[in-house]
Amino acid sequence: MNSVAEDYRSQVSGLAYRNQAFINGKYVPAASGKTFDKVSPINGRLLTAVAECDREDVERAVGAARAAFDKGAWSRAFPKKRKTVLVRLAELMMKHRDELSLLETLDMGKPIANSRSADIPASAHTIQWYGEACDKVYDELAPQRPDSISMITREPLGVVAAVVPWNFPLLMACWKIGPALAAGNSVILKPAEQSPLTAIRIAELAAEAGLPEGVLNVLPGYGETAGQALGRHMDVDMVAFTGSTEVGKLFLRYSGESNMKHISLECGGKSPNIVFADVPDIDSVAKAAAAGVFYNSGQVCTAATRLIVDEKIKDKLVDLVGRHAAEWAPGDPLDPKTAMGSMVDKSQMDRVLDYIEVGRREGAKLATGGRQARQATGGYYIEPTIFEAPSNALRIAQEEIFGPVLTALTFRSDEEAVKIANDSIYGLQANLWTRDITRAHQIARALRAGTVNINATDGGDVTAPFGGYKQSGIGRDKSLHAFDKYTQLKHTFVQL
């Protein structure tokens, strides 16, 4: 163990865990008094017991959020005031960067280097970016006759429930609370039960930044209880959800069976990574392909899990990706040299290992990995795994595994490559590699995905919209387009 890792380990021993709900500006226990154990996937050890919120807590949080919205201290505040508070929150997040990074790593097992250099700074930048956007989003005038005025204005929706996943706990939360708060809404944040710690902590930082009581509430708890109660609540105006397609469909049902609340969904993915034979540097492509699937232990909705490669270079490319896979061998998440950490919990590890067995039974060739790793630690680790599959019809090629598992497929023509890529219920992201600019644009247009990366697997930042086609979801996160889902458009006609 190196000295930097030892330093992080010593910091862990001094951490204080916020583990209660945050309602109306105060930390409070769940109304029932129930808690659930938060176990670190790094070593299987208990971190803390977290408040298990349920229907009564949802009632309290929605009541506080609605009262704050109606009071208008935030919803009717000048954009410049909202900007000041959100920018201050971003600054506080960076001030507490080490604490938040450690919480994120302990919570879901991602490498500390990723938490500190990527996740936390990106989260703070998202809040800052939307804060800065507060006074830069304009209303409109529609073209009318000289004797009338037709105004189109944006108004906040009201009470927004943000239900976020465990793979990027704070970043996914900020993708939603950033634009929702910037637009003037009150927000109830329901973090995943697997990774609630940074969400609970950020509520306190938001209050310190000047966010009025009741404007941001945080309810840790389970999806089938707290999440469902938010989805069915008659006074919640919108649910913004990121997670599985299965659960996304439940929120659509909850909306229809309650008050027809707005629903935004960013759901699953099975991203194709198409590699044509004319790539100029096949080793660079192989390195990027490995990173595209093994980053964050493959627990990424846009993970490039289907490597669709021209049969002329398939053997060479798969061999090179396998060599680069060795660079992603699981290690201690508290060691800054570690590239890949653990799975989020034992349940997810077992699910991925089950899929690896499915791949074997289906007749796919296991080229690399396929086993649990670092068992002596008590944590939940899986080796980088690569299959060569005879068909895109296999379950490992069709279903979202959400782990470090790559399925390699081949094609013989551009048309076949597109057909395989689009042969999925998902359409979140797609990637393609070629030196032919005409082919690149033609293929990009043919791919049914919300994001298409050309000669990359991870393009774009907060300035670009993010979301999917088909069963990957409805609506867009990031960019100014996110304001579209957190506001109502009102038309006011004036006859002069």
In short:
This protein is an alpha/beta fold. The protein has helices at 3-13, 55-71, 79-95, 97-108, 112-133, 169-182, 197-209, 223-232, 245-257, 282-294, 314-325, 346-362, 395-398, 414-422, 437-446, 483-486, and strands spanning 21-23, 26-28, 35-39, 46-51, 140-142, 148-156, 159-163, 186-190, 216-218, 238-242, 262-266, 272-275, 306-310, 365-368, 372-373, 381-382, 385-388, 405-411, 426-427, 429-433, 451-454, 469-470, 473-474, 487-495.
Describe the fold and architecture:
The protein is of the alpha/beta class and 496 residues long. The protein has two domains: 3-267 and 472-493, Aldehyde Dehydrogenase, Chain A, domain 1, CATH 3.40.605.10; 272-465, Aldehyde Dehydrogenase, Chain A, domain 2, CATH 3.40.309. 40% of the residues lie in helices and 21% in strands. The protein contains 16 helices and 24 strands. The chain has helices spanning 3-13, 55-71, 79-95, 97-108, 112-133, 169-182, 197-209, 223-232, 245-257, 282-294, 314-325, 346-362, 395-398, 414-422, 437-446, 483-486, and strands at 21-23, 26-28, 35-39, 46-51, 140-142, 148-156, 159-163, 186-190, 216-218, 238-242, 262-266, 272-275, 306-310, 365-368, 372-373, 381-382, 385-388, 405-411, 426-427, 429-433, 451-454, 469-470, 473-474, 487-495. The strands form seven sheets. A seven-stranded mixed sheet has the order 14-17-18-13-12-20-21, sandwiched between helices. The longest helix is centred in the N-terminal third of the chain and has 22 residues, at 112-133.
